[in-house]
């Protein structure tokens, strides 16, 4: 049978016929228990009806086909002699056929013939059901279904010739007209009003538009040619390069008050705002008032609080330093403590003060104050005490005690300069050169907008939104995906349609959108300096777009994320993509990586506007505070808030990264090694941690069950490796650690030096003065002129050989020194390593030289000076 038919009726017709018989099916006997030469040689040929005695003989059976084994002969054919397995004992409709040999894996055909010379079927057998295809290997193990494949493949039509050089309207129009001339030669109408010409021109327009989109997609497909910032951002993300959208700035602001008051942050449109100066407006502005509308129209730089419920006190507006009766005082560079005048019960640990020079040290005039002598510190300790002799320094001296407040701050906020407290010029004494400012609040750049109306409307669809378009569209039927038809022609062809999610990438109508680094007011940074600095390599401090979306109907909030790669199908998150012109676009998930909003969803946006270097305003630029708090803003003329200023400039604002910057940096950024394998790798990545490490050594040791990497840091300034520093360093190195290796941090091995010197002093100098100068030059401190002492900790590191020549040179250069002789140069208590004769002292790999010359800690190094001569 050469037809493939889905409804086979021939078998039923033969069964109903009075005399005709035909083949039903064929079985190949393949019993593993049989000898190998007997297997697959017996065929059970089943017929639709019983066979008569002697009706078929071996001469009536012919087997054709085969590829490797051909010409298989029939050796015997017996009807019903031995029933096949599963058949009745007297199955007379079965013909048992034995062949000369087993065939190969190809398809064979068994046919009923009259004799060797006539191929027609014997009398009484149907001509259609007188042959059957079979395989000798049907019983062999196989992973495929034995059901025959009945597929009528469609005809392959030759595609029409297409001119791929056609890329615009005119070429597409001409191409279609030429094709129509070939298909319908009689149609020659070229009138523009003809319906055929109209359709051709319409399709040419569509082709021109699609061609432009095709060229645009090809342009955006490569980093070197992409024009859209979102395309460049996605290309860079493939090599793990995070293209940044800029960052907003932060500043410390001082709120001046005349009575105790609490300043709240607010939310939405009622967020408390700090504005740069706008002419003819008061210091306090009520939210929503005409003055506020006037201020916003002037487009000032706006800042909003990062803290809430800030207590403000009038005694903190300006606080004088207390020098315990002394005059002409200053706080030295690197200071971490001071004393303030008066009892300040509301001053507490964690508060921020700004030290500021308010008068010129030489003239006492405010205009001569150095504006760079300003710094912020976060208090770590506040102690309320008194000076029992304080009354003696008042205008009317007495012995009454005076209340004072001792304050301390962390080493991270150590004074970067010497701060003058009081000064004298000629006969004039200036007691208040510098002061401390309290009531300091932290704010960052950005103005909050919200789509929430003044009063909730009855219909949520009537809310005006800041997104364009503002509603998720319905799926486009034209974009429905239809899969290729599956199944055979007989079983029926089926195809699956998949509804494509609606394309929804709305644009935020206003910009630039604020990109704010995270800040936790409940757990602020330990220092004021750390609050204003960000580590670019720290992913936890990366800025996030300051925007949230709310579905008013279901009260569900959608949050921004850096990307959707880690989002789950139920995560309500989105990505903000900022284009080159600053326009922010929102991209949602696809129900696989992030949830896609349902069609018809209308979002309500709350976002902030203000970003980049434009927010880095200078000092003393803030002038107005906008509040919805009735205590502060109900009567601006009589408000407890009397002023606002920013003693320090805003910092941290940077503009968004340009496309060209990404093209230059992204291809090589991934070459930065992000794992540590060797000791050198650990030394390299440890310095990236930015924890004040001068140098770092790594040592591999077997600790019993695994290898441990011991990290030995040499901290800047010779600071101790305390538990806090260990924890910070281990946390930083954890992301680089190899699996199966443990990490530990230990302290360097310090080698304390014992140096004995004989100094010959010139006659015109006092020996004591020369000795004092030498002790300063050979100290471990920073000298008044900014130079380091010879034995400053940062002058030495691991395994560094110590030479006598720099010590000789430094001592000989001091005024009043005639000659220098070094008698002893060795580690403390180790006379065997005296290097005075050789002039150099070699140290081991993890040893660092140290000479503090502290009489309280002689084990940290001793310097002995024997002075001869002089006056």
Helix-strand blueprint:
Blueprint: H1 10-16, E1 23-29, E2 42-47, E3 61-65, E4 74-79, E5 94-99, E6 108-112, E7 131-134, H2 169-183, H3 195-220, H4 229-238, E8 250-257, E9 261-263, E10 273-276, E11 284-286, H5 290-297, E12 302-305, E13 310-312, E14 319-320, E15 330-331, E16 337-341, E17 352-357, E18 374-387, E19 402-409, E20 419-420, E21 423-425, E22 428-430, E23 434-437, E24 440-445, E25 447-450, E26 467-468, E27 481-482, E28 497-498, E29 507-508, E30 515-516, H6 528-531, E31 544-545, E32 547-551, E33 556-560, E34 573-578, E35 584-588, E36 604-609, E37 622-627, H7 630-633, E38 641-645, H8 659-669, H9 679-688, E39 693-702, E40 707-715, H10 723-733, E41 741-745, E42 749-761, H11 767-777, E43 802-803, H12 805-812, E44 817-827, E45 840-841, E46 847-850, E47 862-869
Parallel strand pairs: 11-37, 33-34, 40-41, 42-46, 42-47
Antiparallel strand pairs: 1-2, 2-5, 3-6, 4-5, 6-7, 8-24, 8-38, 9-13, 10-12, 10-37, 12-24, 14-23, 15-20, 16-19, 17-18, 17-23, 18-19, 21-22, 25-36, 26-29, 27-28, 30-31, 32-33, 32-36, 34-35, 39-40, 42-44, 43-45
Helix pairs in contact: 2-3, 4-8
């Amino acid at each position: 049978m050469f037809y493939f038919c889905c409804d086979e009726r021939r078998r039923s017709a033969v069964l109903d016929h009075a005399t005709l018989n035909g083949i039903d099916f064929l079985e190949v006997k393949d019993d593993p228990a049989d000898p190998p030469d007997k297997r697959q040689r017996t065929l059970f040929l089943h017929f639709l009806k019983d066979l008569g005695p002697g009706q078929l003989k071996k001469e009536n059976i012919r087997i054709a086909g085969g590829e490797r084994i051909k010409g298989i002969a029939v050796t015997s054919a017996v009807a019903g002699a031995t029933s096949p397995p599963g058949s009745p004992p007297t199955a007379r409709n079965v013909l048992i056929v034995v062949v000369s040999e087993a065939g190969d894996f190809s398809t064979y055909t068994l046919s009923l013939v009259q004799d060797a010379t006539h191929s027609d079927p014997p009398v009484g057998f149907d001509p259609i059901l007188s042959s059957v295809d079979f395989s000798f290997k049907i019983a062999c193990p196989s992973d495929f279904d034995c059901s025959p494949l009945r597929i009528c493949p469609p005809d392959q039509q030759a595609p029409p010739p297409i001119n791929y050089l056609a890329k615009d309207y005119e070429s597409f129009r001409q191409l279609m007209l030429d094709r129509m001339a070939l298909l319908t030669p009689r149609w020659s109408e070229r009138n523009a009003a003809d319906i055929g010409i109209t359709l051709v021109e319409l399709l040419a327009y569509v082709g021109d538009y699609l061609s432009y989109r095709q060229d645009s997609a090809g342009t955006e497909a490569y980093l070197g040619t992409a024009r859209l910032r979102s395309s460049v951002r996605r290309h860079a993300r493939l090599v793990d390069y995070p293209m940044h959208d800029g960052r907003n700035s932060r500043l410390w602001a001082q709120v001046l008050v005349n009575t105790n008051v609490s300043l709240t942050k607010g939310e939405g449109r009622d967020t408390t705002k700090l504005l740069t100066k706008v002419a003819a407006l008061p210091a306090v502005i009520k939210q929503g008032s005409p003055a506020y509308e006037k201020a916003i129209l002037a487009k000032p730089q706006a800042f909003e609080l990062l803290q809430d419920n800030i207590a403000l006190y009038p005694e903190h507006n300006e606080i004088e330093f207390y020098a315990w009766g002394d005059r002409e005082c200053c706080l030295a560079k690197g200071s971490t403590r001071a004393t303030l005048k008066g009892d300040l019960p509301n001053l507490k640990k964690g508060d921020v003060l700004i030290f500021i020079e308010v008068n010129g040290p030489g003239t006492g005039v405010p205009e001569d104050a150095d504006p760079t002598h300003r710094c912020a510190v976060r208090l770590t300790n506040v102690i309320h005490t008194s000076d029992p002799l304080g009354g003696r320094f008042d205008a009317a001296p007495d012995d009454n005690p005076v209340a004072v407040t001792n304050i301390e701050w962390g080493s991270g906020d150590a004074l970067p300069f010497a701060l003058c407290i009081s000064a004298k010029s000629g006969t004039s004494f200036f007691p208040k050169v510098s002061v401390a400012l309290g009531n300091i609040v932290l704010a960052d750049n950005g103005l909050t907008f919200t789509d929430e109306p003044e009063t909730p409307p009855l219909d949520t669809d009537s809310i005006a939104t800041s997104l364009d378009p503002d509603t998720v569209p319905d799926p486009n039927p034209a974009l429905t995906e239809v899969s290729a038809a599956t199944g055979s022609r007989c079983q029926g062809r089926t195809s699956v349609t998949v509804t494509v999610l609606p394309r929804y990438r709305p644009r935020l109508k206003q910009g630039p959108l604020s990109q704010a680094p995270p800040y936790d007011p409940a757990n602020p940074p330990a220092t004021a300096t750390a609050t204003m600095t960000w580590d670019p390599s720290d992913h936890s401090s990366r800025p996030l777009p300051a925007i949230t979306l709310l579905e008013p109907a279901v009260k569900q909030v959608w949050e921004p994320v850096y990307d959707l790669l880690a989002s789950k199908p139920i995560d309500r998150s989105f990505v903000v993509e900022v284009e080159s012109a600053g326009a922010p676009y929102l991209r949602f998930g696809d129900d696989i990586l992030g949830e896609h909003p349902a069609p018809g969803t209308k979002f309500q946006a709350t976002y902030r506007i203000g970003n980049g270097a434009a927010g880095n305003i200078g000092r003393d630029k803030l002038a107005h505070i906008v509040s919805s708090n009735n205590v502060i803003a109900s009567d601006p003329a009589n408000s407890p808030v009397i002023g606002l200023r920013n003693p320090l400039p805003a910092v941290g604002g940077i503009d968004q990264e340009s496309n060209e910057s990404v093209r230059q940096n992204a291809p090589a950024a991934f070459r930065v090694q992000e794992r540590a394998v060797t000791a050198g790798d650990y030394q390299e990545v440890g310095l990236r941690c930015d924890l004040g490490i001068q140098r770092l050594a790594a040592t591999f040791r077997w600790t019993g069950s695994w290898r441990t990497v011991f990290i030995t840091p040499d901290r800047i300034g010779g600071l101790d490796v305390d538990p806090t520093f260990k924890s910070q360093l281990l946390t930083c190195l954890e992301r680089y650690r190899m699996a199966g290796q443990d990490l530990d941090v230990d302290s360097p091995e310090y080698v304390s030096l014992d140096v004995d010197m004989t100094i010959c002093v010139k006659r015109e100098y006092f020996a004591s003065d020369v000795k004092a100068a030498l002790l300063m030059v050979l100290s471990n401190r920073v000298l008044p002129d900014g130079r380091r002492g010879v034995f400053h900790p940062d002058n030495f590191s691991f395994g560094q050989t110590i030479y006598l020549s720099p010590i000789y040179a430094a001592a000989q250069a001091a005024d009043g020194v005639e000659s220098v002789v070094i008698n002893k140069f060795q580690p403390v208590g180790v006379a065997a390593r005296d290097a005075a004769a050789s002039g150099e002292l070699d140290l081991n790999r993890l040893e660092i030289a140290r000479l503090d010359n502290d009489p309280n800690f002689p084990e940290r190094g001793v310097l002995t000076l024997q002075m001869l001569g002089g006056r």
